[in-house]
Each structure stands twice: as C-alpha cells, then as structure tokens.
Amino acid sequence: MKNRLSVAIITSVLLLSGCQSAYYGAMEKVGYHKRDIMVDRVSDAKESQQEAQEQFSSALEEMQALLNHDGGDLQSAYNKAKEEYEASQEAADEVSSRINKVEDVAEALFDEWQTEIGEISKASLRRNSEAKLRETQRSYTQLMRTMRRAEGKMAPILTAMKDNMLYLKHNLNAQAIGAIKGEFASLQTDIASLINEMNKSIAESTQFIESLEGAK
Fold first, then answer.
1. How far is CA 27 from CA 31, 37, 84, 117, in A?
2. Cytoplasm as a keyword (predicted)?
3. Could you tell me the pTM of the whole model?
4. What whole-number percentage of the chain has pLDDT above 70?
5. Residue pair 37/105 in contact by the 8 Å Cβ criterion
6. How many Cβ atoms sit within 10 Å of the Cβ of residue 205?
C-alpha cells in the first residue's frame, strides 16, 4: 500500500512538472522500471482504443436515430447526436495522447537498454540481450505502425461528423436531414474500417505486453 502511494505521489508531482527523465528516475527508485511503465502505457493505449470503438459506434447510432427521426423533438435528437460527436472527439484525443506516451517511454527504455548492454562483460550474454532488444524494437515498431494507422482513421470520420452537425445546426429540418442521408453509408463504412483497425491494434498490444512481461 505504501509503495502504491509513493508511485501515485511521484506520478502526480513529476508529470505536472513535465520532466519525464526525472519521473522515470524517481519511479525506478521505488522499484517501478521503464519496462513496467511501458507495459502500463501500452495497456492504457489499448484501453483508450477500446473506449473509442464504443464511443464511435455510439455516435453512429445517435446519428442514425437523428436521420431516421420521425416526428417529436428534432432539436433533442440533434443535441444527442452532437454530444456523441463531441465525446468521440474527446475519445480520439485520448487515444492520441496515450499513444504519444507510449512513444516517450519506449525511447527512454530502448536508450537505457542499449547503454546497459555495453556494460555486460560476457559476450554471450551481451549478444543475447542485443538480440532481445532488436526483437522488442521490431515488435514495437509494428505496434506503433498499427496504432497510428488506426489513429489516422479517426480524423476524417470526425471531420464528416462535424460537417454534418454544423450543417444541421443551421438547417435543422427534414429537408436538411434528407440532404445528408447519402453520406451516412460512407460514415458507416469508415467507422467499420476504424473498428477493424483498432481490433488489430488491440490484439498487437496484447501480444506486445505479453512479450515484455515474459522477458522479465
């Protein structure tokens, strides 16, 4: 319990200061190494993508409800769709933030790993460590490529959602809703593609975490 409290305090203070190197050093002093941080941050990125999947699907459902609106309070239906769009934007921002944090700790971890390899005197152990480092870097590079590809699919979807919301804001009537119905099929396809890419990223994240934990 005391160790957890120490980690929480260090995290709060040093992340607020923005000094990552000091943060990693302080965390290591309480037994929380860069590899552990890497595992946690990949897990966080994975979780954020799962949440984004759910949020984009929810936004699609609300937009569909708006487009299929038949009587009742049209403004209320619009407000719900708009709230889901805004929540989708927040979810996308969280995904990007967590991926960036993975990149930050990865750079620090690999730099430290390379430096420490040079301190190993026995050649066979040094070669084994170098091989493991290269293998981990290859897996990481593939993971980041997949994460960024999924991340990149969010922006055009959000742009389309925003366009539709702004258009309806100025023209909230049955005719305006009919005008954007043609774009809905494309939005459905794009969100399905996003979810598919995120599923790949989530699966690779799980494999990467297992490989890091197995190397402890």
1. 7, 9, 37, 21
2. no
3. 0.86
4. 89
5. yes
6. 23
